[in-house]
What does this fold into?
Amino acid sequence: MTVQVTPQIKRLLLMNASSTIIFNYIGIFVNLYIWEKERSIFDVTWFNLIMFITWSMAFAVGCRLLSRFTTRVLIRTTAICGGITFVLLSFLELDDRLLWIACIGMPIGVMWGFYASAQNITLCVFGKGKDFEGYFSIASIIGQLVSIVNPIAFAFIIKWIGFSGSFLLMFLFVSVLLIVSFFIPPITLAEIKEPLFRRMRFQQVFSTSSLKWMVPSCLSAGIFLQFQGLFALIFTFSVSEDKLVIALLNVMYATSTIIAMVLYRRLKTREGVWLMLGMLFVSAGFLLPLLPKAPLLVASNILTTVGMFYFGTIWNTRQFRIISKHSAIEQARIFLWREWMLNISRITLLVLTLFVDELRGPAFIGLIGFALVNALVIPWFSRKGTEAFELEQQGEGQTYRAEPARTVSDSLPG
It folds into this structure.
């Protein structure tokens, strides 16, 4: 299938590619750098907790800044925070380890928050129907290529010149993102006279049935997304301490997703079926760690990674369809609430994880059960939201008929 995208979406994809390299490195090797010191689940959880708290605040600030500046300013700030992050990783030394981790996590949270707010509003402004499918499809291909090449390349770099050398090398990619910021579409909300936070009450933002179904969907999604995101790393780190092995395992997960993508694009199956299949894969992946053996931990990551592919494809595309029907200022408010809901549930999961010491015992089993329940209710919430959206479109005389999904989504943050 040939994917057609507009020039504006192409420039947005260029920004996506530049940032994906940086975020992929942070997601694997910064977490590994923190894990290696004491092999502590608490340390990695604390880092992610600080990051998501900062991310939530930065997303709100980013949306507010769009009422005065353009998305280019947000992406430049993202690049600057990336530079600050790698300076701190290279040179900051503190006796208080938790304070040191917090100092690293905060600029990364600002990076994610500003990047997510800029990407979301740009995509909704330029995205029209099939543009969402084209964007998510190509963005996923970019993400998979980065997930294959990036870990192996940096594993060798770290073996050769150490973590400090790799931190300094990341300045090159931060510079690329800074340069790209001058070429992305300059989206702003400055021409809209209505202030962003004037009609921000929950009832005012979620005024339709389709939007209301987005609320429980986001809260449940945040729980299982964070469980998968955090423990996929910990499971991988638990299999081996060798950086090249860790990189090769991440390549295996990316390759599994590519195989799933090929099947997904060739088989003409309804959206709801793919979403349910994805959540069943995720659920099976959540249960395997109850026997924390290395092969089962690897199998768990493969299943959840493939499941996340199907989830992200359908779930994100369905939500963007609904959001894109609203005005720009309404979209900004919806995205702000959406990001808050996702991150509140992510933070909830991370707080609960602080009480998990090892990959066994009642606390870990309870956490798996909590994530599993939230994963399994996602297809129902998503279907109800889609049905409500179609009824709303019929009421406006603009019936939307969803075709068999052929899109692919990374993850986004939110």
